[in-house]
Amino acid sequence: MSTVPDTTTKIRFAGDGTAFDVTGVQWIINPWDELSLTRALQLKEESNGAIEKVTVISVGLKETEPVIRKALAIGADEAIRIDTAPLDAYFVAKQIAGSIKDDGFDIVLCGIDSSDYNGSLVGGMLAEFLGIPSVSSISALNIENGEVSVNREIDGGKEVLSVELPFVAIIQKGVALEPRIPSMRGIMMARKKPLNVKAPVEADSLTEMISFEQLPAKAACKMVEEDNVKELVDLLHSEAKVI
Amino acid sequence: MEEKKRLMGGEFLLKETNAEDIFIPEDMDEEQQMIYKTCQGFLETEVYSMLDRIDDQEEGLMRSLLQKSGELGLLGVAVPEEYEGFDQSFVTSMLASEAMGAGYSFSVAYSAHTGIGTLPILYYGNEAQKQKYLPKLVSGEWPAAYCLTEPNAGSDANAGKSKAILSDDGKHYILNGQKMWITNGGFADVQTVFAKIGTDRVLSAFIVESSWPGIVINPEEKKMGIKGSSTVQIFYNDVKVPVENLLGRQGQGFRIALNILHMGRLKLGGTVLGAAKKTITQSVNYANERKQFGRFIGSFEAIKYKLAEQVIQTFITESTVYRTSGYVDEAITELIAQGKEKPQATIEGIAQYALEAALLKVFGSEALNYVVDEAVQIFGGMGFSAETDVDKAYRDSRINRIFEGTNEINRLLVADTTIKKALKKGFDLVRYAKHIIKEMNGAEEAVEPTGYFEEKRTYIRNFKRIALLLLGIVSDKFQRQLFEEQMILFNISDIIMNLYTAESTLLRVEKIENNKGGDYASIYKDILDVFVYDTAEFIHKSGCDAINSLEEIEEQEVMRERIRKYTTVAPVNIKNARTRIADKLIEDNKYNF
Which CATH architecture has domain B146-252? Predict the structure, then answer.
């Protein structure tokens, strides 16, 4: 699970554009990870006890704990925080693999992307380091009679796969409709659930940030009356130049 | 560590306190923030997509929304665990009220259910009543309403004509009467109904179930705002209320009603905050999107003024709400330590701050009125369109100045309670006034204040002198006729209200600076600067209005001179301060103070 800036955050850069300025930023659970967690909890509830527990694992410093506790409040049974800053995808995948390789698990669900750096790399690398298969772009994940099946969004259609355990499920939109809101009871219970802090394993970071650039400011929105199709077509043709 | 020194209710006029001794919103812990976000998440997922359907009062919708919020535990924030609640502090339940305050009509249903609907039973119910009703109120299975107002008993609640006569077999009260403006009344299952027993001259309270025979619920009222909230008249025709459903003791009803109102007034300060913050965010979103003359309208000073002032009014209200809520929590803790049961401690804790509650109710509702009014103005023609949320916010806001005791009643209460508290504490207002007029020649002011906060503290100390001076003069002059002097009392209440809110903001900003440093606090100092500057002028005018209204008193000139002196504050470049506040809002594109 990644901790990312709230999606309405104004992005600023520090250090001559080489680092993200975190001043005043509100942190949230990466939306794709939140969907993964939601589906994991649903699967556990549907499993009649066959799924023993849902563990959240995150690589981050102590400041990320409120976000991890939110995952516990939503319903995860326990959490692991690997006590180091997440440097890049390779580093994070190494940390997670190092932490869980000896634990028993059946499915590792992770978001396809984190909404901050959008690398889309951790899931695949993690499977590689663990020596198990991964399936990406999963839009549905179901377990029936012990059989695990997943849907993948592919060009022009949908692919349904049957999967053997253990595997890494790289989660796309669609796997769960809405993320869950922590209930009062969940919030109260979160403080009693284990949040284990683990030391990081030795790992390299393979990425160096050279610079960030701001997007150009958004141009003003042009409103067209709903019955004025001609104007819309003209604008799309002559101004936006998309048709 | 030195123990926190809590100011008792009303003591703020006579005493000063340290920044470290008050609670500020920035003190919220992680769990409290999570609860706040849960409420926001609930509104975003369940309520905002249905606002039109809610306003159309779609059958069963509000009831199901209350039930859904109950499933998340949000109806039981303040209820003890033995009744399926979460036993949270007053501050936390205030925070939940604030968050839900952004929910338009849903917010009204939520406040009515969790506040005036649930609390009479929680605070005054006996064990059997609590066991029977509270878990179902907490789950939302039984929505609740509070039936006090009658056609001829609004502000004058004790004038109600509803009657409860004990049946011959002594097993029931036979209830007859008519109630109106009953929030949630159209779908509530449980009602707290106030009526006079037999020939009593005072009210008693009863727990009544809507399904009992003889209860007739009128169609929904057509209202200016909060259209989605159920508001009905209810008639009671020979309704048999079991004697075990008498709430509290016979004749205790007015006391119950008052204490529930104190709580409701405090909570209203919180709910208006949620609405104000949401409306400000909508205002700045629009100002950042709408272009005229080739520029975003937010870049014009005319709009920046409005945005800044919306923020200022909201921040001041917020500072005051949480300072007071913190006091209430401390009072409750102390009372429990003295051996009181929690319900009793909570009632007393809140009642101790009845003055602050009345003041917050007025200030908060008027702050929100400002915010929504300027939101419509910022939206221009679009703001007048019924398709925008600011239209709804504008109409919904208006009721806040009317319910939970009109702002007029509450202004009178502020002055009245202050005088009573002073009497009770043995503080001689009349003598104090004479002392200010005759004996003080500015000796106390000879020392120039040093430092930013010390300077502001001096100003507020002076504002308090004006309030006390005026209270002394009018209580001396009018004696028992004082409460006919409503115009003058309003002037004095306005002064008290503004100095308490200014002081609360001063203490909050000081605590922010102590915790996070001067750079971080600088935008908050801008807010404080502008508010104290404006308040000084306002207090000057209110003070002079009062003095000039008093004929045939000596030394009017001296008093005017004192008021001028006590409202003299250093000049502030308010244009720059307001611009910085607006610029932060514009940059963040949401209320983030």
Answer: Beta Barrel (2.40)
Cβ <8 Å between B45 and A181: yes
* CATH number of the structural domain A3-217: 3.40.50.620
Q: How far is residue B568 CA from its own chain's centroid? A: 30
pLDDT over 70 for what percent of chain B?
A: 98
Q: Least CA distance to A181: which residue of chain B?
A: B38
Arithmetic mean of pLDDT, B266-286: 97
Among the partner-chain residues A24, A181, A188, the one whose CB lies closest to the CB of B86 is: A188
Task: Answer yes or no: are the C-beta atoms of B480 and B416 closer than 8 Å.
Answer: no
| Per-residue pLDDT, B444 | 54
Rounded (10°) angle between helices B127-139 and B61-71:
100
- Residues in B 28-87 with any Cβ partner in A closer than 8 A: 30-31, 33-35, 37-38, 41-42, 45, 71-74, 76-77, 86
Nearest residue to B386 (alpha-carbon basis) of B260, B227, B514: B227
**Taking the model in full, what pTM does it have?**
0.92
pLDDT at residue B555 above 90?
A: no
> Where do we find the tokens 């401690």?
B345
Q: Does A160 touch chain B (CB under 8 A)?
A: no
Domain borders along chain B are: 12-143, 146-252, 254-408, 428-588
**Of B116, B118, B260, B112, which is closest to residue B183 (Cα–Cα)?**
B112
- B221: annotated active-site residue: no
Closest CA to B156 of B375, B412, B352, B440: B412
Which superfamily, per CATH, for B254-408? Butyryl-CoA Dehydrogenase, subunit A, domain 3 (1.20.140.10)
Question: Residues of A with CB below 8 A from B520's CB?
Answer: none
Helix B518-549 × helix B556-566 angle, to 10°:
170
Residues 174-193 of A with CB under 8 A from B: 178, 181-185, 187-188, 190-191
Q: Which CATH number is correct for B12-143, 3.90.1150.10, 1.10.540.10, 3.40.630.10, 1.10.10.10?
A: 1.10.540.10
Strands (E), A134-224: 134-144, 147-154, 157-163, 167-171, 195-198
- A184 and B592 within 8 Å at the Cβ level: the answer is no
What is the C-alpha radius of gyration for chain B, rounded to an integer number of angstroms?
Answer: 24
- Dump pLDDT digits (tens) for A89-145: 999 999 999 999 988 899 999 999 988 888 889 999 999 999 999 999 999 999 998
Closest B-chain CA to A187:
B31
Residue from B404, B485, B510, B513 carrying the catalytic annotation: B404
Which of B33, B39, B72 is the best substitution to test chain A (most A C-beta atoms within 10 A)? Answer: B72
